[in-house]
């Protein structure tokens, strides 16, 4: 469909969302039935019987296999049909697609493209996930009536924070502070420091800061749609350098965006923190703050989506803060083009001699 990159790892769900029941998930516009095998591994199959198209999620499990609830065709974990009641032969077309999955840190990933290209070494990772000096906490699954590209762009845009989140993640002190953008690496990065300023609401409530602080926002956006926001604060008197952020109260807010349809997405968010490691109430406190902020994003993004669906009378404008989003859209377009075409000139005929 449309603008979906298929050869990529997406978050299918938190590990807690998938059990031994047959459950339907919609990812990149495709319906997928997911469940756990008897050994705990996650199975992901096309959720449509090739016979009369009944969703397999409406069938039942026979051991680790799925039996269609209409005429009893049974499929194993690889998607192969292993039984057609009333006949002994298995038609070659009697199969469903199987999607590779990978599970780590309480997150289930799925590959919706060519299974031969599903390299688990490319699944997103951060060293802080397994570092005992950091605490990891899963948040929610935020359902958005918004195309995933708009959601992702919002997560490489520090400038919106001052206006959309004035009581939680931003305040007026940052409105005119320049945003730096770096677009050469694997991730698009946008960042800025706000020096000697009032702490934002998040750190007033959680970090306990009362005087002015130095604070930072670093936004990392990985294609197709995983974002990491590194933000924090430190007392002004500590005078920390940009590469000394661990000396302050530092938090990574992770956003795993799953495109559902062309106009809906799920943002599964979590956080990793270097403070209050033994505070049992810290996670609930931070969740409350994050939910308020992300509800503010939701209101903006859904309003934008609604307007995008209306007839356009003129082209939208772009301003200085749009560098990161523009490069992101370009990267998505390039990946889409690679998936839409097949390069048959990789080993050119000797009849052609190239001089460049």
From TrEMBL:
Gene Ontology BP annotations: methylation
Keywords: 2Fe-2S, Iron, Iron-sulfur, Metal-binding, Methyltransferase, Monooxygenase, Oxidoreductase, Transferase
Protein name per UniProt: Vanillate O-demethylase monooxygenase subunit
PANTHER family in alphabetical order: 3-KETOSTEROID-9-ALPHA-MONOOXYGENASE, OXYGENASE COMPONENT, IRON-SULFUR DOMAIN CONTAINING PROTEIN
Pfam families per UniProt: Rieske, VanA_C
Keyword Heme: no
TM stretches of this protein: none
Rieske domain boundaries: 9-110
GO molecular function terms noted in the UniProt entry: 2 iron, 2 sulfur cluster binding; metal ion binding; methyltransferase activity; monooxygenase activity
InterPro entries named in the record: Cholesterol_7-desaturase, Rieske_2Fe-2S, Rieske_2Fe-2S_sf, VanA_C_cat
Species of the source: Primorskyibacter flagellatus
PROSITE patterns: RIESKE
């Amino acid at each position: 469909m449309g603008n979906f990159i298929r050869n990529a790892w997406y978050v299918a769900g938190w590990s807690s969302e998938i059990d031994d029941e047959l459950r339907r998930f919609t990812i990149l516009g495709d319906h997928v039935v997911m469940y756990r095998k008897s050994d705990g591994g996650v199975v992901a199959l096309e959720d449509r019987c090739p016979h009369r198209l009944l969703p397999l999620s409406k069938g039942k499990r026979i051991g680790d296999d799925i039996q269609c609830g209409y005429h009893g065709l049974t499929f194993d974990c690889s998607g192969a049909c292993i039984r057609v009641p009333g006949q002994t032969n298995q038609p070659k077309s009697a199969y469903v697609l199987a999607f590779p999955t990978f599970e780590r840190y309480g997150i289930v990933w799925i590959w919706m493209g060519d299974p031969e290209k599903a390299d688990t070494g490319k699944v997103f990772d951060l060293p802080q996930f397994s570092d005992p000096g950091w605490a990891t906490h899963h948040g929610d699954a935020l359902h958005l009536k918004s195309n995933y590209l708009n959601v992702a762009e919002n997560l490489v845009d520090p400038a919106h924070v001052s206006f959309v989140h004035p009581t939680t993640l931003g305040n007026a002190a940052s409105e005119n502070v320049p945003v730096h953008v770096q677009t050469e690496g694997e991730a698009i990065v946008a960042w800025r420091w706000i020096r000697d300023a009032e702490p934002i609401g998040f750190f007033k409530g959680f970090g306990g800061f009362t005087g002015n602080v130095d604070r930072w926002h670093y936004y990392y956006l990985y294609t197709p749609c995983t974002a990491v926001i590194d933000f924090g604060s430190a007392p002004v008197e500590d005078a920390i350098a940009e590469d000394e952020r661990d000396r302050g109260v530092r938090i990574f807010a992770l956003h795993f965006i799953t495109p559902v349809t062309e106009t809906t997405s799920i943002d599964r968010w979590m956080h990793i923190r270097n403070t209050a490691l033994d505070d049992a109430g810290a996670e609930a406190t931070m969740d409350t703050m994050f939910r308020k902020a992300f509800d503010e994003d939701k209101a903006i993004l859904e309003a934008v989506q609604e307007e995008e669906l209306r007839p356009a009378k003129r082209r939208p404008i772009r301003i200085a803060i749009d560098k990161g989003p523009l490069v992101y859209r370009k990267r998505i377009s390039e990946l889409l083009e690679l998936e839409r075409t097949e390069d048959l000139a990789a080993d050119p005929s000797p009849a052609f001699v190239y001089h460049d």
